[in-house]
Amino acid sequence: MVIILQIVLFIVLCSTAGYFAYKGYTRVYKNIMLGKSEDLSGNSSERLKNMLLVAFGQKKMFKNITPAVLHLFLYVGFVITQIELIEIFIDGLTGNHRIIFHAVESIPALRFIYVFIISFIEVLSVFVFIATVSFLSRRWILRVPRLNKPELKGFPIIDATVILLLEIILLTCIFSMNTADMALHKGEYGFLVSGFLMPVFAGCGDTCLHVIERIGWWGHMIMVLAFLVYLPYSKHLHILLAFPNTYFGRLQPKGYISNMPEITKEIKLMMDPSATPPPADANAAPVKFGAKDVFDLSWKNLLDAYTCTECGRCTAACPANQTGKLLSPRKIMMDTRDRLEEVGKNIASNNGIWKEDGKSLIENGYISVEELRACTTCNACVEECPVLISPLEIIVQLRRNLVMEESNAPAEWNAMFTAMENNGAPWQFSQQDRLNWENG
Amino acid sequence: MEVKTMAEYAASGETPEVLFWVGCAGSFDQRAQKVTRSFVKILNHLNVKFAVLATEESCTGDPAKRAGNEFVFQMLALQNIEVMNTYGVKRIVTTCPHCFNILKNEYPSLGGNYEVIHHSTFLQQLIEEGRIKITDTDSFKGKKITYHDSCYLGRANEIYEAPRKVLEELDAELVEMKSCRTKGLCCGAGGAQMFKEDEKGTKRINIARTEEALESNAQIVAAACPFCNTMLTDGVKSKDKQESLKVFDIAELLAAGQGLETIIL
Questions:
Q1: Could you tell me if A322 lies within 8 Å of chain B, comparing CB atoms?
Q2: How far B93 CA lies from chain A's nearest CA (Å)?
Q3: Do residues A75 and A31 both lie within one domain?
Q4: In the predicted model, what is the mean pLDDT of residues B57-77?
Q5: Are residues A213 and A323 in the same domain?
Q6: How close B186 gets to chain A, by Cα (Å)?
C-alpha cells in the first residue's frame, strides 16, 4: 500500500513538474521567436565545432583559471549525476529500491562498475560541494567586483544565491540518502564517500536510517524537479541555452557589423539618376531602422539575452565600465531579457496579441541613451563572453534607431555626419587637400 | 616624396602592386600625416609600386556606421567602391585598423571585394621576405617598447603577432602592458568616441590605458592605429610624461630602424 502510494505521489510530482516546466520553456521559446527572423542555417560543421569547443568543452572559460576549475567541477558533477538519476527515476516509477544494483549484484564485473559509478558521482559531488561553497563566498564574502555590480541588486543576486543553495540542499540529500542506505545495509554497497560518512549516523536505528534515506531520496528528486521548473525563470538557464547559442554564434570576425540591405537599395537609387524606383507596395510595413524594442532585434540577440548567466566578465572587461561610465554590457543583456519578459507577459495576458504599452527597450527603466553613447565598440565584452553572446550587436542596433529614427545624436556626431557627407571626412577638411600630407 | 595616384597610373596604362589607403587621419591629422610619410618612405625605399587615391578617396564611413548612421556609411562606401572598382583595385594596404576592418569585412557585401592588408601585416611580410635591413641599432639599444593592441586589429580581426614581429626587428626589448592581446584595453577612440566628449565617469579611457603604459616602464609605446596614437599622446601629455614616454607608430619605428627617419627618444 505504501509502495503504491509512493508510486502515485512520484508520478503526480513528476507530471506536475513536467507541466510547469513545459509551460516555462515554451514561454522562453515563444519570446525568443518574437525577434526578427534571421537565417543562421548552414555551416553546420563549423557551428557544431564551435558548440563542442565552447559550450561542451568550456574553452573560453579557461581564460580565467580559478572560476574555470570551480565551474568545471559543477558542470561535470551536474552532467555525471544524471546517470544516478536514471536509477532513481526507474525506482520511483516501479516502487523498487536500487533496481540496477539488484539486477547486477550477482555479476561481479557489473557490480564493480555500478559501485564505481556511484562512488565516482560521490567524489564529484564533494568537488561540486567545494565549488558551490566557493561560489557563495566569492559572491558574499570575497565580494568579487564583477559579482557585486549595481545591476545585480534585487532579483539577480537572490536568483544566483537560490541556485547555489538549491545545489547545497541537493548534495545534502544525495549524501544523506547514500549514507543512510549504506548504514542500513552495513556498508555492503561499498560506496566511497558515503562509506566514509557512515559514522555520522552511528546513533540511528534502522527506522531512523530508513526515514533519513527516504527524505534524502525524495529531497533529491524534488530538488531536481524544482530545478527543472525554476530554470526558465532563472539566469541559470545557460546550462541549456549555452548549446544552441554557441551553435548559432557569429562566424564572421568580431569586427564585422552587418550592413543594412534596405539602405543599400535606397542609396543605389540616389546615386543613379536614371533609375526608376520600384512601385511602392501599399501593404508593406513601414521600414524601421535599427531597433527600438525587442521585436526589432534578431531572434539570435534574444537567445543571447536568455543565455546570459550574468557572470559579468563582459562588464569587468568593458573600458567604459572600468572608467566609471554607466554602460555595463551585462546590463544590456539583462535589460533586453527583462523587457522581453514584459512583452511576453503583455501578449500572454491579451490573448496572444501585443497591446502597445507606450514603452520600449530604450529608456523606460531599461537601456538609457547615456549607456548606449559610452560604447567604444572595442569588442572586449564579446571577446570575454564564455557562451558567445554579443552585447555589441544590440548596442549598435539601438544606436541606429536613435540616430536614424529619432535624430538623437550628440551635436559633435551631427557635425561629424555632416562633414562626412560634404567633405568625405569626419572633420571639416576639403577633399582637395587629401594629398597635402606629402608636403610635411 | 614620390607618390603616384591611381589616376596617374591609369593614365600611363600601368597598374600598381597595391593601393595605399591613406584614410582621413593619415591625410589630415598632423600627427598621423607623419606616420603616412614614414610608411611611404619605407615603400619607396623598397621600390614597392603603390598608388594612392588622393582626392578620390573618401572616409570609409566607419565612425558613422559605429555611431549608428548606416546612411552616411553606405553613401561613402558605395562611392568608394565605385571609384576602386573603376580602377580595378585588387589589393589594399592601410595604416588605419578602422579602415582595414571596414574595407575587409563590410565592403564585400556592398560589392567591394579586395585583398585588404593592414600595414603591420604588410611590414611583417616585407621582413619575412628579407627586404628590410635594420641599419640603426644604436637608437633602440637598451630601450623598452610596449605595444598597444588596437581593438580593430586585435579582437576585431585577431591580428596580435604581426605588429609585435615588426617591433622585434628593432634592437629593443619588447615588454607587455598589464592588459594585452585579447585582453588589451581600448584607447577610448573607437565607436566614434574620437569625435565626441566622454560620458560622465571617473576617468577617461585613454588615461587608464596611459597609466598601464607608464606602469610597463617602457620608453616607447608603439601604436598601429592613428586614433590610438592620438589618444595615447593626449594621455601622456595630461600625465606630463612626454619626456619619459614617447608614442610612435610601428611604421615610424621601423623607418627609423632603417635610417629613413630620425626620431627623437
A1: yes
A2: 17
A3: no
A4: 98
A5: no
A6: 6
CB spacing of B64 vs A416 below 8 angstroms: yes
**Cell (9 digits) for A172:** 545534502
Tell me if residue A23 falls in helix, strand or coil: helix
Task: Check A426 against B185: CB less than 8 A apart.
Answer: no
Which A residues 369-428 touch B at CB under 8 Å?
Answer: 370, 373-380, 382-383, 396, 398-404, 409-410, 412-413, 416-417, 420-421, 424-427
pTM here is: 0.97
* Pair B25, B152: CB distance under 8 Å: no
The C-alpha cell of B17 is what? 602592386
In a domain, A279, yes or no: no
Tell me how far CA of residue A416 lies from CA of A420, A422, B32, B60, in angstroms. 6, 10, 19, 13
The pLDDT value recorded for residue A270 is 86
Instruction: Count the neighbouring beta carbons within 10 Å of the beta carbon of residue B8.
Output: 14
Fold: same for B6-125 and B134-257? yes
A218 with A353, same domain: the answer is no
State ipTM: 0.97
Structural domain that includes position A30: 25-40+289-408
| Same-domain pairing of A31 and A66 | no
Distance (Å, rounded) from C-alpha B210 to C-alpha B233? Answer: 9
Sign of CA dihedral B127, B128, B133, B137: positive
pLDDT for res A105:
92
User: Which CATH number is B6-125 given?
Assistant: 3.40.50
Q: Is A355 exposed, middle or buried (0-12, 13-18, 19+ CB in 10 A)?
A: exposed
Residues A118 and A72 in one domain: yes
Taking an 8 Å cut-off on Cβ atoms, the answer to whether A417 and B200 are in contact is no
How far does Cα B18 stand from its chain's mean position? 16
Whether B263 shows a pLDDT value over 90: the answer reads: no
> CB A399 to CB B67 under 8 A?
yes
Domain annotation covers residue A361? yes
Strands (E), B110-160: 115-118, 144-147
Closest Cβ–Cβ partner in A263, A264, A379 for B155:
A379
Q: Which amino acid is at B63?
A: P
**Over the stretch A171-209, which tens digit does the pLDDT of each residue have?**
999 999 999 999 999 999 999 999 999 999 988 999 999
CATH architecture classification, B134-257: 3-Layer(aba) Sandwich (3.40)
Give the β-pairing of B91-94 and B18-21: parallel
In chain A, how many domains are there?
A: 2
**Spans in chain A with pLDDT lower than 50:** none
- Nearest alpha-carbon partner for B187 in B220, B158, B248, B230: B230
